[in-house]
Amino acid sequence: MLPLKEEISQLLTTLTGLEEAEIKEILEEPPSPEMGDLSFPCFILAKQQRKPPPQISAELAEQLAEKEFTYIEYVKNQGPYLNFYINNFALARELIPQITAGEYIKSWCNVGEGHTVVVDYSAPNIAKPFGIGHLRSTIIGNALYLIYQALGYKCIGVNHLGDWGTQFGKLIAAYRMWGEQEKLEADPVNYAYQIYVKFHEEADKDSVLEDKAREWFCSLENGDEEASRLWKTFCEFSLQEFKRVYKMLGIEFDYYQGESFYNPYLEQTIDLVKDKGLATESEGALIVDLEPYDLPPVVLRKSDGTTLYITRDLSAAIYRYEQFEFSQMLYVVGAEQTLHFQQLFKVLELMGYEWALNCVHVPFGLIRFKEGRMSTREGNIILLKDVIEKAEELAFQIIEEKNPQLENKEEAARAVGLGAIKFGDLCNDRIKDIEFEWDKVLDFTGDTAPYIQYSHARICSILSKSGNEAEIKKLASHDLEDITLAATEEKALLKELSLLPEAVLRSAETNKPSYLARYLVDVAREFNRFYHNCPVLNEEGVKRKSRLLLILATREVLAQGLNLLGIEAPQKM
Length: 573
Description:
Layout: H1 2-16, H2 20-26, E1 38-41, H3 43-49, H4 53-64, E2 72-78, E3 81-86, H5 88-100, H6 104-109, E4 116-120, H7 135-150, E5 154-159, H8 166-178, H9 181-186, H10 188-203, H11 208-221, H12 225-249, E6 255-256, H13 266-275, E7 279-282, E8 285-288, E9 298-301, H14 309-324, E10 328-332, H15 338-350, E11 359-362, E12 367-368, H16 384-402, H17 409-426, E13 434-435, H18 438-441, H19 449-465, H20 469-478, H21 488-497, H22 500-510, H23 514-533, H24 541-564
Parallel strand pairs: 4-5, 4-10, 5-6, 10-11, 12-13
Antiparallel strand pairs: 1-3, 2-3, 7-8, 8-9
């Protein structure tokens, strides 16, 4: 309801002296439609004006009675509240052309113009299969990228691959002891993972193996030819597999810049920390003491000369700001890394980088299965590609049962299955753990992507049967003078459509795509109430035209919203 909020805030700021932003913040939605569409509680003015809130409400209503409105039908005071009622005719004439032209969000929420947001997300580990554990970062990060982009921001998506660190010492040591070239070439990622798991099993019996791993990683950092050759082999094979999975997910990145990319900048970064007087030696290691800030020390370089993840993260942050001059940088990484990012941001702040305050950790919970939490060390991992394939298979079975005559069932099953996986994540508050259940995420009647997608497909069917969909699209852009939306369900659906920019904006402000996901469920519900109570094709004249225009706008909102979550909106299901 941004158009209505804008008008109310502009009117009341001249009458109350309050700031427009403050007025928008305290506007409320009444408990029932009979009490208005938005209410302004007058309690905030009582102390300033030294009057009881009901008196203030009555006086404001009297003053507003003399005003001319655009989106407001009328104003009515009720006790301490000032209630505003939407002019549905004016709102429809404004909304429908903007929505159908794909300009509604941009028209009211182009807040990001001239600003850049870097989104660091996904970040799987080289030489390990792409497990379901990486799903949340990938899907949440991609949705935030698309949401910020819709708000006018220039977005930079970076995949910070885990292609460096002590685990490569373990992997190289394992390969040198047990590796077979033929098996590596036949199934590189899974084979590398198998010997990685074997290393941990054997290291539990023989601690000497850990020493060998440290030696190999030290050799890798020092440019040893054999260590570098094996590392490059693992990286090349893994990246090929990752890109195949990303293609299945329909996700692309602007940059693949793993940890190793920043190796040339490490010494420069360490020198910068030293120059600021922040680095001290402790038992042969170089650290930054963060005890005054109630944080553990940061180890920049271990006693054996090797660097750590946080050293590379410092270099990455500095490099990204120098390259992109971002207004904000989001790290979409699990909640278990919260301490790491607290340390990272504090060191950057102590180094004097004001932009460190614009670095944001976007944490999320775990995906849980009945089998329990997954562990790459123990070999307990569910492959993402297997989950995607199963989703498509189950979706195909459902479509085969519901609509056996449908053409391109495989294509529809892919869109529905993948949408179910993504929405099953995104509709939840990201900070909470998720228990993944197939019967829930693929439910065509619940709060799911298939329910929203089916609503979209149903509208496509109605518009197709109208016989003049192209003409309806033309009418949406200019011929709305006689539009009429008088039924309760029509008004409710139009009001829900008006909330699209707010849902997108709220998702960006909180970095929670769940606001947009839940909004789309609400739109689908309002549409289905409308569909069951308001005939479209059986109506004639202005009423038929008005309802066709309304569902055309609804279809666009559902499609735009799903696309911002990285989900397809199929026309047939």
